[in-house]
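Response to reviewer comment R2.3. The reviewers asked that we include at least one raw input/output pair. We reproduce the pair for Putative transcriptional regulator here without editing.
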Amino acid sequence: MGLGEARFHKEWLLPGAVAVGAAAAMTGDLVFGILPDEWAVVGWTSAAVLVGGLTFTVQRYYNKTRTVAAINTPSIDHLPPAHDLVARSVLSRALLQELADVRSPRGLLPNTPSEHQGQATVVVVHGAAGIGKTTLALHTAHRVKKNYPDARLYIDLRGDGDSPRTSAQALEWFLRSLGVAPTEIPRRTGDRASLFRSLTNPLRALIVLDNAYSTEQILPLIPSGPGCAVLITSRRALSVGNISRHRMVRVELPQEDEALTILAHYAGEERIAEDPAVALELVQFCGRLPLALRIVGARLRARPDLTLRHMRARLTSERSRLRELVYDNESLQACLLLSYRELTREAQQSLGLLGHLPAGRLTNWHVTASGLPEETALPVADELVETCMMQSVSGDDTGPQYSIHDLVRVFASAQYEQLPLDERRKLERRLIEAYKDAVLSLAASRAPELAAQEAVTPSDRLDGLPAAEWVALESDRLVWACERARELGLPRTASLIAESASYFLEDLNLTPETVETLLDHDQPERPRTMQALVRARASLRVAAHDPETALTLLSSTPADADEYSAARHKADLARVHLVNSDFPQARAHMTEAVHALRELNDVWHLLVSLEKLGEILRAQGRPAEAETCQREALDMARRFGDLRATARLRRSLAETLGYLRELTEAQEHLQAALADFRRLRDRRWEAATLYALGKIYRLQAKRDLALECYAHALRIFEPMGERLWVGRIHNARIRVLAGMGRLRRAQQEAERALSIFEELGHTLWYSHTLRDVGWLQIRTGSPEKAIPPLTKAIERTRQAGDAYAEAMARHLRGIAYRETNRFAEARQEFGRALEIYRTGRYTWTEAACAHDFIRALRAEGAHDEADRVESTLKTSNPLFERMAGRNGAVAIPDED
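Raw output as returned:
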């Protein structure tokens, strides 16, 4: 029997029957003794109805009085005090907006949709443990409580504890708070909920349900009165049935500056001001989590002798960090442990193993790779997200992505260490094998022999990412997998991971020292693997401008072990010669490598080799051939779907187009490459592209833009310790500053560049800078002083086979000879420079050099010869007439 039916029997039917019976008993003898039978029946019936009506009236008055007595008590306020709300103004305003407008219990606010009639307002505040949900909710509740004058009810539903409150327990508490006597509280949960809704229907009441566990727990606690509002906090994004007037407010981590404000509030502004840099480190150790910040701040305030640096030292170790995040009755570890205990065994294992990995983004692949079958992995991922032990950070066509908060990761790793050793090793072996299979399948796309010689598992589940991007994101974890495989006695697996990773050297997001460690394996029984690792280590030495060590490494392995190794060995030798500025040898080896790789259809190594061959040809004064190589390589990179290789080849092609004066296309390629490198977060190549873009702006005489690019590139390269690039930027600034009339500053840049190149022993770039020093001497009216540095520059560039740089230096020495009236020598220099420019189809520089040659002929008095040369150039070079009047002694070399 329901509450309504029971109340009808108790309050109406039974009293009515008793009243009628009493009336019949009292009036029967009297009426039937006086009146005739017909009139007696009428009189008796009238008396019964009269008594029943009186009973109805009295009972109705009694019930109304009892209900009013239950709710017409003084205003009820059970809200507990809240912690200070700091740096959460945006969230607070959003919550206030939802709760500030209170509708009349008997009507609606103006313009309220009709479908909301008779519904309470429900707001669910959800987020991770320790993120400040309760503080936000209680702070807001206190701000709006004047809008709910009848009642402000609060209950902690203990959803984060071992024994959450039941709906029946919560309803009993609410009914007692509303004045219902214990004996009047129904026993069944549904009946309690009905009575609760009846009592709150005419009220303006705010109900705070803190730490809710589930939708089933809270649904009976939702009032129906339109003047009521319910504020729920939970670690889960709980639904609220079919209630249309409900809102979800997700509490995210505060921004870094907001987190610093929270720490300062609890520690004291003056403490933070003592050492703001260390305070920022404390914020980072706390992962910007408000509970952790409050604990650290409270400890600092309570201990004036505990400096920020001492606190930093205590939090530095991940193993002890959670033990430090305890103060008074607050403990982050205890808070997290309550959520952890709710998880299934599979979810605990998966969270622990993923927490044991280096930090980074996670996907469903990682959950599956942790040893769970796919049909189990996805529900486990959902469970971890629902309990806020893992956050969903984004989702696109490649699938959802997750992250684990740093402190949760530390906690999960500690819990994982408590699992039995055999269980941990079994889980780790599965994960290591998953990483080996994944990176091996990706490497097989770059090294076709791997697919033929190894059991390669298709990589169709790697989140749909390009190979290079996946490897870049997983770099630290590949190192973990390799090292852990060694520790678990899996040397073959470890070496396969390292070999596969060696084909992604440009993509590994690791320090050179870490890459060296990754590649350090001793597997003589696996010659293919060892040759790949040695070649990779040689490439690292080339990148570090250590060609001697690279050559030693390459000499330690047979060059013809197999046809793939032989072709790649030639390409590696070419790169060594390129770093040594030996362009003829570099070109010879790279040409052979390109031919062999094309025969083998080794597409990846072919496109990389074509890229380098283009750089060599450009330096040798053959930019048109360089352009052909680089365009072919760029098309291959696009077909490969490799963003980094595509961006790198755009940059390389743009530099060649700069030599060919195709400046508009060059600029387009560089801007596209810059955007791609920024997307890839590749700071080194971003800076290299800014340097190249600065050169294009310089050629266009857009000097301010050029200096801006150089300054930005320098800000990236200097902290990275890239001394060669820093020197090149100082060199590039010389001509820009001189063109702006800042000759003294240009001279200072030249001195800095010379110092760096001398320190590095880089003779070719030293000679390039000497060439610019010679030009500065010409520009300042001292052509005789220009000849010695220009002569040294010519000798070094000729030895290196850098034809274009040699032509530029000869062109300038020709100007110096002309300005000192050494016309025969000037003729010789201009003639040699023009020959190189024409061979390489450098149309623009040929025209500029021809003007200086003609000016020398006229100064010498050879006017007829000058006229013939001028007439020929007008016909053969379309740019010649556009440069009428150009004088290399004044103009900026190669600036349009």
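The mean pLDDT is 88. Residues 125 and 233 are 5 Å apart (CA to CA). Further pairs are available on request from the corresponding author.
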